[in-house]
Amino acid sequence: MGQIEWAMWANEQALASGLILITGGIVATAGRFTQWYFGAYSIVAGVFVCLLEYPRGKRKKGSTMERWGQKYMTAVVKLFGPFTRNYYVRAVLHLLLSVPAGFLLATILGTACLAIASGIYLLILWDRR
Amino acid sequence: MGNWVVNHWFSVLFLVVWLGLNVFLFVDAFLKYEKADKYYYTRKILGSTLACARASALCLNFNSTLILLPVCRNLLSFLRGTCSFCSRTLRKQLDHNLTFHKLVAYMICLHTAIHIIAHLFNFDCYSRSRQATDGSLASILSSLSHDEKKGGSWLNPIQSRNTTVEYVTFTSIAGLTGVIMTIALILMVTSATEFIRRSYFEVFWYTHHLFIFYILGLGIHGIGGIVRGQTEESMNESHPRKCAESFEMWDDRDSHCRRPKFEGHPPESWKWILAPVILYICERILRFYRSQQKVVITKMNKRGFSMEVGQYIFVNCPSISLLEWHPFTLTSAPEEDFFSIHIRAAGDWTENLIRAFEQQYSPIPRIEVDGPFGTASEDVFQYEVAVLVGAGIGVTPFASILKSIWYKFQCADHNLKTKKIYFYWICRETGAFSWFNNLLTSLEQEMEELGKVGFLNYRLFLTGWDSNIVGHAALNFDKATDIVTGLKQKTSFGRPMWDNEFSTIATSHPKSVVGVFLCGPRTLAKSLRKCCHRYSSLDPRKVQFYFNKENF
């Protein structure tokens, strides 16, 4: 367990969740499902999560492969300051963001995936104990 | 171009057939659900999204059948062995099993997305038609009772006005298994990205076993019979083409048409996945059985183990981790009476293994071995002149090849056409590869003893040099052995200039066929391939370079 940097997997999972939230949100909004405004929220939340998680953080050990074009995003993410660097804050942020999307069937998958990503980020803190 | 076609025609054909089948199944199922009278009334509520969902479901069944097959390693090895009469090109395709597994996985993800989106629309349509009070056909169909006493011939799975789609999703078997399967699929995909796989293998290995939930979920997904079509009996009695228009009069006693009755579509996914699941279970049992065979360590021996150059094995060490199996390329030659691997500390498992072996006072841990797997790199022995390029850890399979070539050469093996080898070793620093260094030193000595110094020509390129090292090398320029490696060949610094190398080889062997083999990064493959094209003569009788992208 010692050497696994869970943050890397949490990052992949959160990025995937962001995309799923966006897709679910588009389906709900375009189809004008009941309570489709949750779908609109889901699109915004999904875009935010994707932008936040796109820059891959530097690994503690070994070289890190950057994602294509991530240096532009990193400049924006850094503006949010300490909020984004701290994993605990990210875990709580993802958990809170995922809740509203849970009210709509089209976006509930995004909720589940983002909540799991949040759980993996929390695992880092548990691992550090 | 011709070279590419000769090497890849089978892969292209295979992929075209697979894609073609996917398209065919999708279109066929789509048309069936879009046109068939059995689903006439269902379509009245749902529209074309019914056909979309069913078409993608059929493709999901098809691809789920295929996904387990490429990972039955022992089955593939068996096929490779029994098809020895097949050409090597055909057998080499079996080495691309993981690429095919990934392609099928992407297709499953695509169809899962289509299936879920279509069903989201379906559920929304069902929900609206249940809420509707306008006496339309859709609302009458939705009111057909779920009561078993009246035959249970309902169409709309949403039973009452107050039932939400979320409730139906999480209380029906189809919905619940669907959610579980999709989450398992997403977790498997995110932990299987190349970055995670190469850096944190254990995360990938354990998470990927969620496929069990996927397969189980798929097996029982269709049990509830939520997809409803009109029964045969009901169609004979009141055919939709005749009766749909007069739906307001269905309850009239003197009407020819009765209320239609519906039945669920029986589950069929289990029929698709049964055979591959059984094959895979056999595969796991076989892996377990082979792992129980005794392995003698220091120089590894196992009864009935026979290997060829370029193959790899899976190793498990129960005292470190019961469930993890890690792949390693074999570094010994088939002519030796033992087999060996070289393990680099690159993560939790490997570090623990090295530490366990280094313990002075505890007994050597038991290890389990499964394999060998992979197509043998016999091609190397077919070329008169072989150019072998190993970059970094990519040098490992060449250990096996070089040793084997040397044994064959010593025994004057007639199958060995090779007369000259050019070996290029490119790495940042040699520290981790001192065992390979030792191999080259011993080969050097043996060649001198036999008086065949010209057989192996190797060059080492250190890409992680600094001015200290270079300065030191310059000072010791006229020493017989190299100060960095102790080998007779001097180390070069920086990357090789391939144009110079290729033109020298072309000039020295103007009439030969030269095989170029690489184990290294893709960018290097591109430059080598370019050089092969550039320096191959237009005249087929003169020097020809063939680039082999072997699957090491």
From TrEMBL, chain A:
- Cellular location of this protein? Cell membrane
Molecular-function GO terms, alphabetical: heme binding
Q: Which residues form a coiled coil?
A: none
List cellular component terms (GO).
Answer: plasma membrane
Reading the lineage from the top rank, the first entry is Eukaryota
| PANTHER family according to UniProt | CYTOCHROME B-245 LIGHT CHAIN
Which family is this protein grouped under?
Belongs to the p22phox family.
This protein is called: Cytochrome b-245 light chain
Identify the species of origin: Homo sapiens
